[in-house]
Amino acid sequence: KNGTTTEPYLRLARGARPRQSPGSDRAAVVAQTEHTSVRGRGRGLTLLADVTPNAGGYNMDTARGCCMQPQVCTATPRRSLFGNGFFSSCCSECCEEDGPVKIRGGYDDPSDVGDESDDPELDDAAIAGFAAEYEVQQNVVDQERREEEKEEAAQDFPADNQAEPRVVRVPDSIAELDCDEDENFDVSIEDDEFAFNNKNRPDGYMQEFCYEVHKRLRIEFRKIGYETMNTNRWLKQHLKKNDYWLLPCHMALIAQKLGLKPRHKSYYKRIFVWLPDERWGEEATPCCPNCRSNSRVGSHGFRSDHYGRMVVDMHDNYFVMTRRYICHGCEDACQDSIDKAKAAQALGAEIYAEDISYTFMGYNPASVALLPYGYGDEFPAILSHKAALDKKVIDWMRAVQDKGVRSESLSNMLLEMHTKTHMDRALRYEHDVTRQKRNVGYQTHANVEEHFSSFGDAKRYMGKVPTGRYLSAMRKKYHDTIKSFLDREVKKRGCNRLYWDVSYKEGKKMSRYRGERVFSGLVTGMNEYGEVRVQFHVVTDSHEQFDAAIEALLNTLTEYGQSHPTLFVTDDPAKDSKYFSQKIPTIHESTQKFNALGGSIEEDNSDSYDDDNCVPFDREDVTIASTVAEMNDAADAVRQIVLNSKSKWIGFDTETEVDTNSMTGRPTGVRKKVGLIQLCYRDDEQKKRVVLLRICNSRKIPDRVQALLGDKNITFAGNNIHGDITGLIRDYPELNAVFERRGDKRYRMINLSVYARRRGVIQTSSAKLPLLTKRALDLHMPKDDTDTFSKWNRTVLE
Description:
Layout: E1 28-36, E2 42-54, E3 57-61, E4 71-73, E5 78-79, E6 86-87, E7 102-103, E8 106-107, H1 124-156, H2 205-220, H3 234-241, E9 245-246, H4 248-257, E10 271-273, H5 276-280, E11 297-299, E12 309-312, E13 317-321, E14 324-327, H6 328-346, E15 359-361, H7 365-368, E16 381-383, E17 388-390, H8 391-401, H9 407-438, H10 468-490, E18 497-503, H11 505-509, E19 512-513, E20 516-517, E21 521-526, E22 532-538, H12 547-559, E23 567-569, H13 573-583, H14 585-595, E24 622-625, H15 628-644, E25 649-660, E26 667-682, E27 688-693, H16 703-709, E28 715-718, H17 721-731, H18 735-740, E29 749-751, H19 752-758, H20 769-777, H21 785-788
Parallel strand pairs: 10-13, 12-17, 18-23, 24-27, 25-28, 28-29
Antiparallel strand pairs: 1-2, 2-3, 3-4, 5-6, 7-8, 9-10, 11-14, 12-13, 14-15, 16-17, 18-21, 19-20, 21-22, 25-26, 26-27
Helix pairs in contact: 9-10, 13-14, 15-16
């Protein structure tokens, strides 16, 4: 049909004659195609084949046609591309054109191969007849196809020419495995969805399969005294070969053996059978959670009202099954307690028997943890109230939640992966349905349905995903079980660098009793890998509360043979450096080494200094102006002296009062108006003078002070002077025009830290004034938080 001869069954020999096989009931099959011969002539040729039905298939004798050897084709004949013949997939050999035909055992007589002109069946009239017949048949096929398409369209669009198509609603896939906030996560409670009794047989694909598997397990794993020699323990043998897993690829055959109707493998979920004593022998007999021993533990049979528990995995869910065990030692102790209580009650005493549990399930977490040689690690899940999570999900949660991913986002991710698996299985199901309908020879163990199940169908697919609240509760529950182990493991981690931080958010938001804060802050110390090594609460900012925690850290490092911290990182080095240098000698040693490097250290953390090396200061050199008149007189005097001097420089600084927390002493971030302007200059005798202008009580800056600040002939210098000017303009808007008269707010305004950095005195332009004083003058300027956060607006300055 496509004008080529690449397929073996379309390679035709011109002039081929059909060989007659006497004694057979033949049905001539005619197939016509457009064939381009090697001579370049397009001719319509026919393939005549004799197909004889027999017991083993169809006897296709197509000598001198496509197939050169008579043979029996066991495949079911398929309709040809033209709808009026059959082709066999076993035809693979073709003859050469215009020559002897090679067959098994020799060559045919060349006289049997004639030219196409000698055969009256291949004349132009016959070819035209075949073409007309094919055209008629093709028209019939096209008409049938158009009618089928019309019927399908009629289903989507009603016959009354309505514009609205048929509405198809697909059930939503949501996370529905949830837990209550007050739930105690009792692992001994099973889900009612998987319960059964003799009168109420489970209804559902996996429910009925699990029910029959559970029933078969009760038969094959009976006690020795109840076994019969005729019991075929095929399921037990299958479990041993597959590490006690039942996989979906085997479940159709298992369903047949259990007498169930096989379902498509897309509906089946894995089943894990947890029987450690059967898998590893007597040494792996589960231990009693009460007495923590397995010396008197024995099998107590499978439950007769519940067959398994669902476990949520990363991409799908599966089931776990186990049996009950009984501790005869705890059973005797319980009976003794009951007997003693009855005897005491007979004497009039109010004594009650001790509640001792002596039966337990094989997957009880306390029992699994007691198995020797790490056998308990083979159990794949962490149990919760009525359900379970696979350990891979728990490990994945810990990794991503440490990076800030919320539990609700984890639930959405799991839902995405589970629904992706559901869609993949639905596509596999549809492909198998199509294959079964189109290929008669295709056989399957499972009967297919018309439509695949929705994700949340409880009777068929049984998709179930946990909510964010459930995942959060499970993570907390699991970490409670391994907390002691993690605490011991983290002690093995070194701490060459100690990062120290105090958070006050917890004290404000959480740690309260009757509205009052119990703690003021949470102290956290981490190593260079971001691992928490120290964490505790404090009630004040006193360093004395750090003593016990630091001593415990240093003792642990010493016991494990690890070095003590050599670097200390804090957000308040001026306040913490002296204390930690004394408590951790290695930090003090490393500080001395860095100090020896000179200019590479930006701050001088040493609090020890000589009084003779301080910046000289005399109160007689300070003038305080509080009223408007005093400030105007002082401004005129300073302006006149500076303009008559050679340098014409004035040191400039402002002070602003900031509210502080009454308990912690830390600033709250609420600032008041600028309260003080400091001016420093040299008089006629080159002696330093200081003028303090207390503008806190003034609504506006006095006129003479504005004239001084706006004089373009005077250069003002100060550390972060531009920030001080910005604060003045914000609180006193009239100064904006004053500084604009200078032509530029930065004109003749020198920032000392930037000035020093450009000349290599310091390495950063954000250095504080004490550091500038130390580097430039080699003098010490004592200035701490007490000075910075002074009450500048009070009546009398201290």
